[in-house]
Specification:
The complex is a heterodimer. Chain A is built from no helices and 9 strands. Chain A is mainly β. The chains are: A mainly beta, B alpha/beta.
Chain lengths: 71, 468
């Protein structure tokens, strides 16, 4: 398993590969490694609209970090 | 006049023979339009709501009637165990999913279709029956001789018809769906070409453009238990894509993962093959689910780790994750080493078919345990680090918390845990057959019940549920 941290100014559910993961922003997500499309649940008031990532070589103390800004 | 009657009789007889000999297995129907909200799928998180705090998954292994009776015993014990703190409910009602293989699929499917009725008539309708003898007799029926002469009707189709009429009351997956998909019954078979697990769910049928709702449950169970050589594979048609269907993104992404996450890559490849390459695979053939995973636990692990998995999508909500593995594995007495002469071809064939399956099953349990342990360890380590910072640094720094927080109860029920050495030896030497003696069936049911009741992990679960 790999670890991802999605940073956003609000608490929002993280969408992984088009599925609502129910994991929240600013918390560590434990998930399968590899290629993933990352976005947030509605409202669509953030940018960029999507991150496309390759998740590998992470750990719970050094997760991959992606950022969304409030529009 | 008499001559005309003879001719008419002959013509009629030929017509009957021709029509029977053109016998064809019931084809799976096409799905005209894709609808993510319809069909035999696991309910959405909105539908399952707060009940996801306690998530219970059962895995029923293969092993003929032995596995069916053993898993039935575990079901019965869950049925007799009240949910701590709620006398109106039983532990059985808390079960969210049953993933099953081969013999275990009979119990899982029967419970999925008929719920508590399983405790009234499953023993007489299935466990005590000589299914193997019945199938043997059917082979001697002239009607079946003619049907079996058709290249499109095989022994497994005959078995599926028999299960359909005498056990599953001609029910289809629509009936399972009508039961509210709780528990969700995941019947596993093996794709003969790819060697991958094939699970009878609408998500899997989307890939072959087919509607699972009118597919007989008996036929899925027959595929799940189609042991090589004894029964022929179950065939399915790979239909064109339904309107509006696209390969899910997690499969598309998985296809890029070779060398990055090979496990995910092959998971994706085995699914995508039938959607991308339809002209190469107009049909697919399914065999015993035990060939790809004889425990039924890989399906649960996929649901736990993939973004499309319904357990993954609930990881942040689950507080107690319970996995009960009912493993009817036996250990045949080993006499091969006592002889200097080389083992006979029958022994070699048996070992060839089962050694890798047994080794793989052992590894599968270890993978499941390791994966769940890693989830718990990661969360505990983050909490421990935060405590150290709070104690020694006093600077208010906060590590991002882990997004999940659940306890795992992995309950492994198998014959090696039987304390009575004579009973243990007897159970470990039972054959894989669809015909067991009544007292053997009773021993299996009693043992399944007792092992769950006496499991330390199960007792711990009940205690923790009471303390909620």
């Amino acid at each position: 398993m790999e670890y991802l941290l999605v940073k956003f100014s609000e608490q929002r559910s993280v969408v992984i590969d088009n599925y609502d993961s129910e994991y929240k922003t600013n918390q560590i997500i434990e998930m399968d490694g590899g290629h993933h499309n990352i976005s947030l649940t509605d409202p669509q008031d953030y940018t960029p609209k999507e991150h496309i990532i390759i998740l590998q070589n992470t750990g719970w103390l050094n997760p991959m970090e992606v950022y969304f800004e409030k529009e | 006049m008499k001559k005309n009657r003879i001719i008419s009789t002959i013509i009629l007889a030929i017509a009957v023979i021709v029509s029977i000999s053109c016998a064809h297995y019931p084809k799976n129907e096409s799905l005209p339009r894709y609808d993510a909200a319809k069909g035999y799928r696991y309910p959405s998180p909105e539908e399952t709501g707060s009940r996801d705090h306690l998530f219970v998954a059962l895995a029923f292994s293969g092993g003929g009637t032995r596995a069916a009776a053993f898993s039935y015993g575990v079901l019965k014990e869950l049925y007799l165990t009240p949910l701590p703190g709620d006398t109106d409910r039983t532990m059985l009602e808390e079960v969210d999913v049953i993933s099953s293989v081969s013999g275990g699929s009979f119990t899982a499917a029967y419970y999925g279709l008929f719920k508590e009725r399983v405790f009234e008539d499953f023993e007489s309708r299935f466990l005590y029956r000589d299914i193997q003898g019945e199938l043997g007799k059917l082979l001697f029926s002239p009607e079946n001789w003619i049907k079996l002469s058709s290249p499109y009707f095989n022994r497994v189709d005959m078995a599926a018809e028999h299960y359909n009429e005498t056990l599953f009351d001609k029910q289809t997956f629509q009936h399972l769906e009508n039961q509210g998909c709780r528990p969700y019954i995941a019947i596993n078979a093996t794709n003969m070409t790819t060697g991958a697990q094939f699970t009878f769910t609408q998500n899997q049928f989307d890939l072959i453009g087919s509607d699972l709702s009118r597919f007989p449950v008996a036929r899925a169970v027959a595929a799940s238990s189609a042991f090589p050589f004894l029964l022929s594979p179950v065939s399915l048609v790979n239909h064109p894509d339904p309107a509006g269907y696209e390969l899910p993104i997690d499969i598309k992404n998985g296809l890029k993962d070779f060398g990055i996450n090979d496990r995910r890559y092959f998971w994706a490849k085995n699914r995508a093959e039938y959607q991308i390459n339809k002209s190469e695979h107009p049909y697919l053939h399914l065999m015993d689910g035990g060939l790809s995973d004889n425990l039924g636990i890989r399906y649960i692990l996929d649901q736990y780790s993939r973004a499309s998995g319904y357990i993954f999508q609930r990881k942040s909500k689950i507080r107690k994750l319970v996995i009960i593995l009912v493993n009817a594995k036996t250990e045949k007495s080993q006499n091969l080493d006592r002889s200097e002469t080389s083992p006979r071809i029958g022994d070699v064939a048996h070992k060839t078919a089962t050694v890798s399956m047994d080794n793989y099953s052992f590894e599968t349990v270890q993978v499941a345990r390791d994966q769940l342990k890693a989830s718990i360890t990661a969360r505990k380590n983050i909490d421990a680090c935060q405590e150290l910072i709070d104690t020694h640094c006093n600077n208010g720094y906060e590590i991002p918390p882990m997004g999940h927080s659940f306890d795992v109860y992995f309950i492994d029920i198998n014959f090696l845990k039987v304390k009575d050495p004579l009973l243990r030896k007897r159970l470990l030497s039972l054959p894989t057959s669809f015909s067991l003696k009544r007292d053997e069936v009773n021993d299996l049911i009693e043992t399944g019940m007792k092992l769950l009741r006496e499991s330390q992990k199960f007792k711990e679960l009940l205690k923790d549920l009471m303390a909620r």
